[in-house]
Specification:
heterodimer; A: alpha/beta; Transcription Regulator spoIIAA; five-stranded mixed β-sheet; 40% helix; globular; B: alpha+beta; Heat Shock Protein 90; disordered N terminus
Protein backbone atom coordinates (compact mmCIF):
# COMPACT_ATOMS: atom_id res chain seq x y z
CA UNK A 1 0.00 0.00 0.00
CA UNK A 2 1.33 3.42 -0.87
CA UNK A 3 0.17 6.88 -1.82
CA UNK A 4 1.67 8.86 -4.67
CA UNK A 5 1.05 12.60 -4.66
CA UNK A 6 1.64 14.76 -7.70
CA UNK A 7 0.44 18.08 -8.97
CA UNK A 8 -1.61 18.37 -12.12
CA UNK A 9 -2.14 22.05 -12.78
CA UNK A 10 -3.42 23.43 -9.48
CA UNK A 11 -4.84 20.10 -8.34
CA UNK A 12 -3.07 17.75 -5.95
CA UNK A 13 -3.71 14.25 -7.30
CA UNK A 14 -3.34 11.36 -4.88
CA UNK A 15 -3.08 7.84 -6.28
CA UNK A 16 -4.01 5.22 -3.69
CA UNK A 17 -2.05 2.09 -4.56
CA UNK A 18 -3.57 -0.83 -2.67
CA UNK A 19 -6.36 -1.04 -0.10
CA UNK A 20 -7.31 1.94 2.04
CA UNK A 21 -7.78 0.36 5.43
CA UNK A 22 -7.12 0.68 9.13
CA UNK A 23 -3.38 0.06 8.75
CA UNK A 24 -2.65 2.89 6.35
CA UNK A 25 -5.43 5.45 6.40
CA UNK A 26 -3.62 7.72 8.86
CA UNK A 27 -0.79 8.06 6.38
CA UNK A 28 -3.15 9.23 3.65
CA UNK A 29 -4.81 11.67 6.03
CA UNK A 30 -1.49 13.17 7.11
CA UNK A 31 -0.18 13.52 3.55
CA UNK A 32 -3.28 15.39 2.41
CA UNK A 33 -3.41 17.58 5.53
CA UNK A 34 0.24 18.51 5.00
CA UNK A 35 -0.62 19.74 1.50
CA UNK A 36 -3.66 21.59 2.81
CA UNK A 37 -1.44 23.32 5.33
CA UNK A 38 0.88 24.35 2.51
CA UNK A 39 -2.04 26.18 0.97
CA UNK A 40 -3.23 23.65 -1.59
CA UNK A 41 -6.97 23.88 -2.19
CA UNK A 42 -7.87 21.32 -4.87
CA UNK A 43 -7.58 17.62 -4.23
CA UNK A 44 -8.36 14.58 -6.32
CA UNK A 45 -8.05 11.06 -4.92
CA UNK A 46 -7.76 8.43 -7.63
CA UNK A 47 -8.76 4.88 -6.67
CA UNK A 48 -7.95 3.07 -9.91
CA UNK A 49 -5.47 0.87 -8.06
CA UNK A 50 -7.60 0.24 -4.98
CA UNK A 51 -9.47 -2.98 -4.43
CA UNK A 52 -11.45 -2.18 -1.30
CA UNK A 53 -11.76 0.31 1.52
CA UNK A 54 -12.82 -0.42 5.09
CA UNK A 55 -14.88 1.76 7.41
CA UNK A 56 -11.81 3.53 8.78
CA UNK A 57 -10.71 4.36 5.22
CA UNK A 58 -14.18 5.78 4.56
CA UNK A 59 -13.92 7.69 7.84
CA UNK A 60 -10.68 9.32 6.75
CA UNK A 61 -12.26 10.40 3.48
CA UNK A 62 -15.15 11.97 5.42
CA UNK A 63 -12.68 13.71 7.72
CA UNK A 64 -10.61 15.03 4.82
CA UNK A 65 -13.70 16.21 3.01
CA UNK A 66 -14.66 18.29 6.06
CA UNK A 67 -11.21 19.73 6.64
CA UNK A 68 -10.70 20.61 2.98
CA UNK A 69 -14.08 22.30 2.83
CA UNK A 70 -13.33 24.25 6.03
CA UNK A 71 -10.26 25.70 4.31
CA UNK A 72 -12.30 26.70 1.29
CA UNK A 73 -10.98 23.82 -0.78
CA UNK A 74 -12.54 21.07 -2.89
CA UNK A 75 -12.16 17.30 -2.96
CA UNK A 76 -13.04 14.92 -5.77
CA UNK A 77 -12.84 11.12 -5.93
CA UNK A 78 -12.27 9.28 -9.20
CA UNK A 79 -12.02 5.80 -10.71
CA UNK A 80 -14.02 3.84 -8.17
CA UNK A 81 -14.45 0.26 -9.32
CA UNK A 82 -17.81 -1.52 -8.94
CA UNK A 83 -16.93 -2.81 -5.49
CA UNK A 84 -16.00 0.64 -4.24
CA UNK A 85 -19.13 2.13 -5.81
CA UNK A 86 -21.16 -0.45 -3.92
CA UNK A 87 -19.50 0.54 -0.65
CA UNK A 88 -20.23 4.20 -1.23
CA UNK A 89 -23.85 3.40 -2.13
CA UNK A 90 -24.38 1.13 0.89
CA UNK A 91 -23.11 3.82 3.24
CA UNK A 92 -24.79 6.62 1.23
CA UNK A 93 -21.42 8.32 1.04
CA UNK A 94 -22.04 8.67 -2.68
CA UNK A 95 -24.30 11.58 -1.67
CA UNK A 96 -21.56 13.24 0.35
CA UNK A 97 -18.70 13.13 -2.14
CA UNK A 98 -18.26 14.34 -5.70
CA UNK A 99 -17.33 11.19 -7.55
CA UNK A 100 -16.16 11.11 -11.17
CA UNK A 101 -15.78 8.13 -13.46
CA UNK A 102 -12.42 9.23 -14.74
CA UNK A 103 -9.52 11.34 -13.60
CA UNK A 104 -10.04 13.68 -16.59
CA UNK A 105 -13.71 14.32 -15.73
CA UNK A 106 -12.74 14.94 -12.11
CA UNK A 107 -10.07 17.47 -13.11
CA UNK A 108 -12.50 19.23 -15.44
CA UNK A 109 -15.07 19.56 -12.68
CA UNK A 110 -12.98 21.87 -10.45
CA UNK B 1 -15.00 -18.89 -14.49
CA UNK B 2 -16.69 -22.28 -14.46
CA UNK B 3 -16.66 -24.81 -11.66
CA UNK B 4 -15.12 -27.62 -13.69
CA UNK B 5 -12.12 -25.41 -14.59
CA UNK B 6 -11.57 -24.52 -10.97
CA UNK B 7 -12.04 -28.02 -9.64
CA UNK B 8 -10.07 -29.76 -12.39
CA UNK B 9 -12.85 -32.28 -12.90
CA UNK B 10 -13.48 -32.93 -9.20
CA UNK B 11 -16.91 -32.11 -7.83
CA UNK B 12 -16.71 -29.16 -5.46
CA UNK B 13 -19.95 -30.03 -3.75
CA UNK B 14 -18.43 -32.14 -1.02
CA UNK B 15 -15.41 -29.93 -0.38
CA UNK B 16 -15.27 -28.43 3.07
CA UNK B 17 -12.50 -26.33 4.50
CA UNK B 18 -11.79 -25.38 8.07
CA UNK B 19 -9.08 -22.92 8.95
CA UNK B 20 -8.04 -21.83 12.39
CA UNK B 21 -5.48 -19.16 13.09
CA UNK B 22 -4.31 -16.94 15.87
CA UNK B 23 -2.74 -13.53 15.47
CA UNK B 24 -1.33 -10.95 17.84
CA UNK B 25 -3.29 -7.75 18.46
CA UNK B 26 -1.54 -6.00 15.59
CA UNK B 27 -3.46 -4.51 12.67
CA UNK B 28 -0.61 -5.35 10.31
CA UNK B 29 -1.77 -8.97 10.30
CA UNK B 30 -5.22 -8.16 9.00
CA UNK B 31 -4.50 -8.09 5.28
CA UNK B 32 -2.72 -11.44 5.30
CA UNK B 33 -5.57 -13.15 7.16
CA UNK B 34 -8.12 -11.61 4.81
CA UNK B 35 -6.15 -12.77 1.80
CA UNK B 36 -6.03 -16.36 3.10
CA UNK B 37 -9.76 -16.51 3.76
CA UNK B 38 -10.70 -14.83 0.49
CA UNK B 39 -8.55 -17.27 -1.42
CA UNK B 40 -10.39 -20.24 0.13
CA UNK B 41 -13.71 -18.74 -0.92
CA UNK B 42 -12.37 -18.23 -4.41
CA UNK B 43 -11.34 -21.90 -4.56
CA UNK B 44 -14.91 -22.86 -3.69
CA UNK B 45 -16.29 -20.68 -6.50
CA UNK B 46 -17.86 -17.94 -4.41
CA UNK B 47 -18.81 -14.94 -6.55
CA UNK B 48 -16.23 -12.38 -7.58
CA UNK B 49 -18.07 -9.75 -5.57
CA UNK B 50 -18.06 -11.93 -2.45
CA UNK B 51 -14.35 -12.65 -2.83
CA UNK B 52 -13.26 -9.10 -3.61
CA UNK B 53 -15.68 -7.08 -1.45
CA UNK B 54 -17.97 -8.83 1.03
CA UNK B 55 -15.42 -11.09 2.67
CA UNK B 56 -12.45 -8.67 2.72
CA UNK B 57 -14.38 -5.72 4.11
CA UNK B 58 -16.50 -7.61 6.67
CA UNK B 59 -13.53 -9.61 7.93
CA UNK B 60 -11.30 -6.52 8.06
CA UNK B 61 -13.93 -4.80 10.19
CA UNK B 62 -14.26 -7.76 12.55
CA UNK B 63 -10.51 -8.10 12.92
CA UNK B 64 -9.88 -4.41 13.53
CA UNK B 65 -12.67 -4.31 16.11
CA UNK B 66 -11.19 -7.34 17.85
CA UNK B 67 -7.69 -5.86 17.86
CA UNK B 68 -8.44 -2.22 18.58
CA UNK B 69 -11.55 -2.44 20.75
CA UNK B 70 -11.71 -5.95 22.15
CA UNK B 71 -8.03 -6.35 22.92
CA UNK B 72 -7.15 -2.63 22.96
CA UNK B 73 -3.98 -3.50 21.04
CA UNK B 74 -2.47 -5.09 24.14
CA UNK B 75 0.62 -6.88 22.95
CA UNK B 76 -0.10 -9.96 25.09
CA UNK B 77 -3.65 -10.46 23.82
CA UNK B 78 -4.46 -12.65 20.85
CA UNK B 79 -7.21 -12.82 18.28
CA UNK B 80 -8.44 -16.18 17.06
CA UNK B 81 -9.98 -16.59 13.66
CA UNK B 82 -11.99 -19.64 12.64
CA UNK B 83 -13.10 -20.06 9.07
CA UNK B 84 -15.46 -22.83 8.05
CA UNK B 85 -16.40 -22.84 4.38
CA UNK B 86 -18.13 -25.14 1.90
CA UNK B 87 -20.12 -24.68 -1.27
CA UNK B 88 -23.19 -23.53 0.63
CA UNK B 89 -21.89 -21.01 3.13
CA UNK B 90 -19.00 -19.35 4.85
CA UNK B 91 -18.88 -19.01 8.62
CA UNK B 92 -16.24 -16.82 10.18
CA UNK B 93 -15.64 -16.44 13.88
CA UNK B 94 -13.36 -13.75 15.25
CA UNK B 95 -12.57 -14.08 18.96
CA UNK B 96 -10.97 -11.44 21.15
CA UNK B 97 -10.18 -11.34 24.85
CA UNK B 98 -12.40 -8.37 25.59
CA UNK B 99 -15.57 -8.11 27.62
CA UNK B 100 -17.85 -7.93 24.62
CA UNK B 101 -20.40 -5.37 23.48
CA UNK B 102 -24.10 -5.05 22.82
CA UNK B 103 -24.55 -5.80 19.14
CA UNK B 104 -28.06 -4.33 18.86
CA UNK B 105 -26.92 -1.09 20.45
CA UNK B 106 -24.00 -0.81 18.06
CA UNK B 107 -25.92 -1.62 14.87
CA UNK B 108 -26.83 1.98 14.17
CA UNK B 109 -27.97 3.33 10.83
CA UNK B 110 -24.79 4.85 9.48
CA UNK B 111 -26.75 6.41 6.63
CA UNK B 112 -28.99 8.68 8.72
CA UNK B 113 -28.30 12.40 8.13
CA UNK B 114 -26.61 12.89 11.50
CA UNK B 115 -24.49 9.72 11.20
CA UNK B 116 -23.56 10.22 7.54
CA UNK B 117 -21.13 13.01 8.39
CA UNK B 118 -19.47 11.08 11.20
CA UNK B 119 -15.99 9.78 10.74
CA UNK B 120 -16.66 6.59 12.67
CA UNK B 121 -19.50 4.16 13.20
CA UNK B 122 -19.62 2.27 9.91
CA UNK B 123 -17.85 -0.96 10.83
CA UNK B 124 -20.72 -3.05 12.18
CA UNK B 125 -23.12 -1.42 9.72
CA UNK B 126 -20.98 -2.66 6.82
CA UNK B 127 -20.57 -6.11 8.36
CA UNK B 128 -24.37 -6.42 8.62
CA UNK B 129 -24.88 -5.26 5.03
CA UNK B 130 -22.18 -7.42 3.50
CA UNK B 131 -22.88 -10.63 5.42
CA UNK B 132 -26.14 -12.55 5.73
CA UNK B 133 -25.87 -12.76 9.49
CA UNK B 134 -23.79 -11.14 12.23
CA UNK B 135 -23.89 -12.57 15.74
CA UNK B 136 -22.02 -11.85 18.94
CA UNK B 137 -21.71 -14.09 21.95
CA UNK B 138 -19.31 -15.06 24.70
CA UNK B 139 -17.48 -18.36 24.43
CA UNK B 140 -13.99 -18.41 25.90
CA UNK B 141 -13.71 -14.82 24.78
CA UNK B 142 -15.80 -12.37 22.82
CA UNK B 143 -16.95 -14.01 19.59
CA UNK B 144 -18.26 -12.27 16.50
CA UNK B 145 -19.66 -14.72 14.00
CA UNK B 146 -20.26 -13.80 10.36
CA UNK B 147 -22.26 -16.03 8.03
CA UNK B 148 -22.56 -15.64 4.28
CA UNK B 149 -24.34 -17.88 1.75
CA UNK B 150 -22.48 -18.59 -1.43
CA UNK B 151 -23.57 -16.87 -4.64
CA UNK B 152 -22.44 -17.80 -8.11
Amino acid sequence: MSFALRKQGDVVVVDVEGQLIVGNRQELKQKVLDELERGEKKFLIDFSQTGYIDSSGLGVLVSLSKKIREQGGELRLANLNDDLKTLFELTKLDTLFQIADTRERALESF
Amino acid sequence: MTSPDRSRGLPLGSLHLALELEIPSDIRYIERVVEMVARQCEQLAYSTRQVSLNVPVALTEALSNAILRGNREHVSKRVQVRCDVNRERLVLEVVDEGTGFDLTECLVDATSPENLVREDGRGLFLMARLMDRVERFANHGNVVRLTMRRHD
